[in-house]
Amino acid sequence: MTEFWESSFIEKQLMWGAEPSDSAIQAKDFFIANNVHDILLPGFGYGRNAKIFHDNGIHVTGIEISQTAIDLAKAQGAGEMIVYHGSVSDMPFDNKLYDGIFCFALIHLLSSRERKKFIKDCYDQLKPGGYMIFVTISKKAPMYGKGKQLSKERFETAHGVRLFFYDVDSIQQEFGKYGLMQFSEIAEPNKQVANGASLPFLVITCKKG
């Protein structure tokens, strides 16, 4: 399992490059406007999304399963941030409550049982009035429906990556009881190359009452 996640991390790095995702930039603006100062990033990766929050005065704590990614993030200046080495399935890693949570391109890699636990665990680590933002793959993605079908809306690609594709119904079903505020579409470009292809993602925002 560790080898799979290491490989997945390397593929993500090559695909997305070093610049923050558009959804992270959007989330940074949202957090600043809503006085969010302390956030948790499950799926910290190699820090490309963490930096934009940190550089704008938001304290960042991460969770990352790949030690390779953590080492690279620290080599690139993320040494001031606390990053827990482990799987999000083992949350919580601390007893802290956060103002906000930002999770990019992770939840769709999980099984139904894992997604339910993960969403609840994130919600439980929010302060009252805190926000959590999940960015996940949409059914409009070109790889939807391709490969081996594992369950409803979940497929295994030729490279062995298991993906769950979200739509309006599944968002309502999985996030509805966790303070679902809104969701919107966003096309995430490949910023590593000029005119890189974009993938359709969904940005899901919840608020803890």
Give descriptors for this structure:
209 residues, 10 strands, seven-stranded mixed beta sheet, alpha/beta, 6 helices, three-stranded antiparallel beta sheet, disordered N terminus
What's the structural blueprint in terms of helices and strands?
Blueprint: H1 2-16, H2 22-33, E1 38-42, H3 50-54, E2 59-64, H4 67-78, E3 82-85, E4 98-104, H5 112-124, E5 126-137, E6 148-151, E7 154-156, E8 162-164, H6 168-175, E9 180-189, E10 198-207
Parallel strand pairs: 1-2, 1-4, 2-3, 4-5
Antiparallel strand pairs: 5-10, 6-7, 7-8, 9-10
Textual characterization of the structure:
By secondary structure, the protein is an alpha/beta fold. It is built from six helices and ten strands. The chain has helices at 2-16, 22-33, 50-54, 67-78, 112-124, 168-175, and strands spanning 38-42, 59-64, 82-85, 98-104, 126-137, 148-151, 154-156, 162-164, 180-189, 198-207. The strands form two sheets. Strands 3-2-1-4-5-10-9 form a seven-stranded mixed β-sheet, with helices on both faces. Strand 7 and strand 8 (162-164) form a beta hairpin. The radius of gyration is 16 Å and the shape is globular. 36% of the residues are buried.
